């Protein structure tokens, strides 16, 4: 009989900490030796056949990115090399939690996965329509998504599981506030913004690094659906967003987004973190624009529909691990997990040679020693399938990433800052920015979603809303009281 009181790995090894990844010091990066993390992510990626385990319902289109402003002082990436330069792109939009047949208008974050086919390889900026996420550490990602899927006994969606998880994870409050605001049900894909969400980095020709966040602002204007209209469309036109995107492009009404970047110098990090109490690499937080203004970079336009949905959208395999010289990562713990998890998911879902498919194939020359496996349609011919070791030591060519490292400090271990972390200020700031009618819709949406969950969970979650702003907690409590009395 299974002992559900003791958490173990699949091999029966006791798990010492299921809340925090093993990192080099409190900030990270994440260590590959954390087998519990790796096993969780690997098993999670293999839980669905054949659709994506997350982001299953999606739409895609091709387009172009055009540079409008010079950012070469920050990055040597060739796609930004000159104002006016264009790069072919592919963008896949999606809902996150639903199955492939779910409705486009469900309350859910929207995936915003953008590929740039550059002359130095593919750059995949795999983000969402929100600048934040529910978690700061990838070790909790499989647990979180399980709560968004179906109950293992009833095979029904479970509001109790959803709110139980969130109420025990106050770091989720900022994203929960976004999700249940008007932005949780965007009016199609053309009328929403996109974000890289994570902290990334830019490296210039001198080898200098800055940290950055990517923003894509819709030129079509923000439009959202109210809860009633989103629910109506889910029943009458569940493919609403797919239809809207495809028809707009087919009719020559090409959607566009202005692309911006926020930049934080390495010498600014410590002072900003000390002043705000927030980590620059925490995915549940934003960088306020007053501290780090958005810098214009270029314009993204979608102007061509795929000819074959399965070949070009369903088999599109993007990963944040795909970057080009002049771009880099950061110690963001969620990003570190995604660098492994996404590529591993594509290896499982599409196959070990998925990068040979037309939608995934780089538009530049490719040479490597990978061979064989399923569907090896471009298998290297007679070229040598190994790279010899240089007995006298390597002589770097200057090509490739060649990015500067960042300093790793501290003892490797599992670090939990949740007892001291500020999970409430930014959520409260967002609430206070809303108009009175937007606040009313927010608390109404939350109350409707929480009314069926046990009172213990409701009270735990109400305490989080109240810490963010007393009026936030009072508003939800009042709506809940009205609903429960009916």
From TrEMBL:
Broad class of enzyme this protein falls into: oxidoreductase
What's in the keyword line of the UniProt record?
Heme, Hydrogen peroxide, Iron, Metal-binding, Oxidoreductase, Peroxidase
Query: Self-association or partners: how does it assemble?
Result: Homodimer.
Q: State the reactions this protein catalyses.
A: 2 H2O2 = O2 + 2 H2O
* Gene Ontology CC entries for this record: cytoplasm
Give the protein's biological function: Decomposes hydrogen peroxide into water and oxygen; serves to protect cells from the toxic effects of hydrogen peroxide.
Per the Swiss-Prot or TrEMBL record, the active site comprises 55, 128
Q: Which family does it belong to?
A: Belongs to the catalase family.
**Gene Ontology terms: biological process:** hydrogen peroxide catabolic process; response to hydrogen peroxide
> InterPro entries attached here?
Catalase, Catalase_3, Catalase_AS, Catalase_clade1/3, Catalase_core, Catalase_haem_BS, Catalase_immune_responsive, Catalase_sf
Q: What is this protein called?
A: Catalase
Q: Which organism is it from?
A: Piscinibacter gummiphilus
- Pfam families (alphabetical): Catalase, Catalase-rel
State the EC number(s).
1.11.1.6
């Amino acid at each position: 009989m299974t002992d559900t009181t003791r958490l173990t790995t699949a091999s029966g090894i006791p798990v010492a900490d299921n809340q925090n990844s093993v990192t080099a010091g409190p900030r990270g990066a994440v260590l590959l030796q954390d087998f519990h993390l790796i096993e969780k992510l690997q098993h999670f990626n293999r839980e669905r056949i054949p659709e994506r385990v997350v982001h299953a319902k999606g739409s895609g289109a091709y387009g172009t990115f055009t540079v409008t402003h010079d950012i070469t002082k920050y990055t040597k990436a060739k796609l930004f090399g000159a104002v006016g330069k264009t790069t072919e792109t592919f963008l896949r939009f999606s809902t996150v939690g639903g199955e492939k047949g779910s409705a486009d208008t469900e309350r859910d974050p929207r995936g915003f996965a953008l590929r740039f086919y550059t002359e130095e390889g593919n750059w995949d900026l795999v983000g969402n329509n929100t600048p934040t996420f529910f978690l700061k550490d990838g070790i909790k990602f499989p647990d979180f998504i399980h709560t968004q899927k179906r109950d293992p006994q009833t095979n029904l969606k479970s509001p109790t599981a959803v709110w139980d998880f969130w109420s025990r994870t106050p770091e989720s409050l900022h994203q929960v506030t976004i999700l249940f605001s008007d932005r949780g049900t965007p009016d199609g894909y053309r009328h929403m913004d996109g974000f890289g969400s994570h902290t990334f980095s830019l490296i210039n020709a001198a080898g200098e690094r800055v940290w950055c966040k990517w923003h894509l602002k819709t030129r079509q204007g923000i439009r959202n659906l109210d809860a009633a209209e989103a629910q109506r469309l889910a029943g009458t036109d569940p493919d609403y967003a797919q239809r809207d995107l495809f028809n707009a492009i087919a009719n020559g009404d090409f959607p566009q987004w202005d692309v911006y970047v926020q930049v934080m110098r390495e010498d600014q990090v410590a002072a900003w973190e000390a002043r705000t109490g927030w980590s620059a690499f925490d995915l549940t937080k934003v960088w306020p624009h007053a501290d780090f203004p958005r810098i214009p970079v270029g314009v993204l336009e979608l102007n061509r529909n795929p000819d074959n949905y399965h070949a070009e959208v369903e088999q599109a395999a993007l990963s944040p691990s795909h970057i080009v010289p002049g771009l880099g990562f950061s110690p963001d713990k969620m990003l570190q997990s995604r660098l492994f998890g996404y590529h591993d998911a594509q290896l499982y879902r599409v196959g070990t040679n998925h990068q040979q498919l037309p939608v995934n194939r780089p538009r530049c020359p490719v040479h490597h020693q990978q061979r064989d496996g399923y569907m090896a349609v471009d298998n290297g011919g007679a070229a040598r399938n190994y790279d010899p070791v240089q007995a006298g030591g390597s002589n770097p060519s200057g090509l490739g990433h060649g990015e500067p490292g960042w300093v790793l400090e501290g003892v490797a271990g599992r670090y939990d800052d949740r007892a001291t972390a500020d999970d409430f200020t930014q959520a409260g700031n967002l609430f206070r920015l809303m108009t009175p009618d937007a606040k009313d819709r927010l608390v109404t949406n939350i109350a409707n979603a929480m009314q069926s969950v046990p009172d213990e969970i409701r009270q735990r979650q109400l305490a989080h809303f109240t810490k963010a702003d007393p009026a936030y907690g009072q508003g939800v409590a009042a709506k809940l009281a009205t609903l429960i009395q009916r």
